[in-house]
Amino acid sequence: MTDEQKRDQILNLAKPYYSIYEAAAVLEVHERTVRNHIKNGLLKAGKSGRQWRISKADLLAYIAPKN
């Protein structure tokens, strides 16, 4: 899936926040990869209780072309 298709998929979902597992499914990577990107500061996320949440805007920024 291309970055544009992933972007469209995210925009079509009505959720404002995603779990690590949902973000991994959209990005087509393993959950551990998402956790590593959060830990290394490549993907912004916040904790809600014990669970990480990734905003739709942060997920879109992550897949946007890095110019």
What does this structure look like?
The chain has 67 residues and is an alpha+beta fold. The chain has a single domain (3-63), classed as Multidrug-efflux Transporter Regulator, Chain: A, Domain 2 (Orthogonal Bundle), CATH 1.10.1660. Helix content is 52%, strand content 15%. The protein has helices spanning 3-12, 20-27, 31-39, 56-63, and strands at 17-18, 46-48, 51-55. A three-stranded antiparallel beta sheet has the order 1-3-2. Helix 1 packs antiparallel against helix 4. The protein is globular. The model has no long low-confidence stretch (mean pLDDT 86).
- Taken from the alpha-carbon principal axes, the silhouette is globular
CATH uppermost class: Mainly Alpha
What value does the Rg take, in angstroms?
11 Å
Strand content: 5-15%
How many β-strand stretches?
Answer: 3
Summarize the structure.
The protein is α+β, with helices and mostly antiparallel strands. It contains four helices and three strands.
List key phrases describing it.
67 residues; globular; 3-stranded antiparallel sheet; Multidrug-efflux Transporter Regulator, Chain: A, Domain 2; alpha+beta; 3 strands
Topology (elements, then pairings):
Blueprint: H1 3-12, E1 17-18, H2 20-27, H3 31-39, E2 46-48, E3 51-55, H4 56-63
Antiparallel strand pairs: 1-3, 2-3
